[in-house]
């Protein structure tokens, strides 16, 4: 049911933890399943993500997608990080079962929330970044997942 990569990132999640004084931090939840994800980003003066950490209180797929998401955004510019969509995260994990697709959306939105926080703090605009939702259900109802 789950790919080897998903199992690997679930059993050995990368970048678990918190960052002290992060450049941006964002928390997103899913009221329906009760899962919560918090993403911390450390961004240098060039706008490159140097460090990413996460804390996820949630299902195995949410843990695996947050782990992969942090791996994918590291070394990217804030603009490039927007390309780390839930589809990109799922592809990098060799897919997720259909009922678990929404878990990957939590990872995408948590990155966006952390980037949004960074942009707000620095009074900059990240092109294409929309104000993140606090509860992913709002998004799931807007879009068809
Ligand atoms: Fe809620 Fe996976 S079941 S994020």
Give a short overview:
This protein is of the alpha+beta class and 145 residues long. It has six helices and three strands, in the order H-E-E-E-H-H-H-H-H.
Q: Main traits of this protein?
A:
single chain; about 140 residues; alpha+beta; three-stranded antiparallel beta sheet; about 15% strand; binds FE2/S2 (inorganic) cluster
Based on CA atoms alone, the radius of gyration comes out at 14 Å
Biggest sheet character: 3 strands, antiparallel
Structural class: alpha+beta
Q: Please report the number of helical segments.
A: 6
Could you explain how this protein is built, in words?
The structure is a single chain. With 145 residues, the chain is of the alpha+beta class. The protein contains six helices and three strands. The chain has helices at residues 4-11, 60-73, 78-81, 86-92, 101-122, 136-142, and strands spanning 24-30, 35-43, 49-57. Strand 1 (24-30) and strand 2 (35-43) form a beta hairpin. It is globular and about 45 Å long. The mean pLDDT is 95. The site of FE2/S2 (inorganic) cluster has 9 residues, from helix 2 and helix 5.
């Amino acid at each position: 049911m789950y790919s080897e990569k998903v199992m690997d990132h679930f059993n050995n999640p990368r970048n678990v933890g918190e960052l002290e004084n992060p450049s941006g931090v964002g928390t997103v939840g899913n009221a329906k399943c009760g899962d919560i994800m918090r993403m911390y980003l450390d961004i240098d003066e060039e706008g490159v993500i140097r460090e990413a950490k996460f804390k996820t209180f949630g299902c195995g797929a949410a843990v695996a997608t947050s782990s992969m998401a942090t791996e994918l955004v590291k070394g990217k510019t804030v603009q490039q990080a927007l390309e780390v969509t839930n589809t990109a995260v799922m592809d990098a994990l060799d897919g997720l079962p259909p009922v678990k697709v929404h878990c990957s959306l939590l990872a995408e939105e948590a990155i966006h929330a952390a980037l949004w926080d960074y942009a707000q703090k620095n009074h900059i605009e990240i092109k294409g970044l929309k104000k993140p939702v606090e509860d992913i259900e709002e998004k799931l109802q807007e879009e068809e997942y």
